[in-house]
Design a protein that fits this description.
mainly alpha; 13 helices
């Protein structure tokens, strides 16, 4: 029963994140390119009601995700977050008049199938992190939080590096959130606070990278990369970072493979892309 609730909460969280992405990306497309990977990008966006509404949905999504991770394994919850692609598909169909074809039907079926397999094959709970696993997540937090500024210094503000940074950042948010849950369960309040602060810092930098990727790159490229890394990397790393091994490793690997294919099919769908970000030629860059 806990597994079922974890999946349902992951679906709810991913739906909120999808709504956030759609609203935020719409406004990000309308900002000047010279704001890429700069705090001024968010400073402009924070004055726009649609972007603020999307951000509110994203803020609400995180505690829902945290509860899901407290009930189920990160190896299950993070792939289940792929349901956000289905929500984007529904938005594209309902509000933009996009059509559902074989690609979209197959993608939805694969998402459902992958989550069903992982509900059986993944560990029921994340389990305690190993000492090395905790260090890996902690070092990742330190390295990922300033990633947008590092990319800017290196002149890597294009769609590919920022999409990779966004996916990696959200993946690490999931892992660090699991450590927030674990610290609270063990009543290690200072550790929980430290991990929560780390999640907040990473979320800021990751949001900046994500907005830049959707500002400068077609959504059909940015979405599958960011979603794929966010969904699959924590699940793939979880057995190495925690004491919880998947009880059915072959089926677990197959489930991750199905989820990867679902991301490829849905993430490159026109309907999902239009819901995730307005087409570049339909959203000219303007000053706020």
């Amino acid at each position: 029963m806990k597994t079922l609730f974890a999946v349902l909460l992951a679906f709810a969280s991913s739906s909120l994140y999808a709504l956030a992405t759609s609203a935020q990306a719409l406004e990000a497309r309308r900002t000047p390119p010279e704001t890429a990977l700069r705090a001024s990008l968010l400073a402009r966006l924070v004055r726009r009601p649609i972007w603020l509404a999307g951000t509110a949905a994203g803020f609400l999504a995180w505690p829902v995700q945290a509860v899901a991770l407290s009930l189920g394994s990160v190896a299950l919850v993070q792939p289940a977050m792929g349901f956000g692609l289905v929500v984007l598909l529904l938005l594209g169909v309902a509000f933009l008049g996009e059509r559902v074809g074989p690609r979209e039907i197959a993608g939805v079926g694969l998402i459902i199938g992958a989550v069903g397999i992982l509900a059986w094959a993944a560990p029921s709970e994340t389990g305690s992190f190993t000492s090395a696993g905790t260090w890996v997540v902690g070092i990742g937090v330190v390295l990922i939080a300033p990633a947008p500024y590092v990319l800017r210094l290196l002149g890597l503000s294009g769609g590919l590096p920022t999409s990779l940074a966004a996916g990696l950042g959200w993946a690490w948010v999931g892992l660090a959130t699991s450590l927030v849950d674990a610290s609270i369960a063990d009543r290690h309040w200072f550790a929980a606070l430290a991990w929560a602060i780390g999640v907040g810092l990473m979320s800021f930098g990751t949001l900046l990278a994500e907005m830049t990727s959707l500002q400068s790159w077609p959504a059909t490229r940015a979405v599958p990369i960011a979603f794929g890394i966010e969904m699959l990397l924590p699940a793939a790393l979880a057995p190495a970072l925690t004491h919880a091994a998947p009880p059915h490793p072959i089926a677990f690997t197959a489930g991750l493979g199905l989820a990867s294919l679902a991301v490829l099919l849905l993430g490159t769908s026109r309907a999902v892309a239009r819901a995730a970000a307005a087409p570049q030629d339909a959203a000219p860059l303007t000053e706020p």
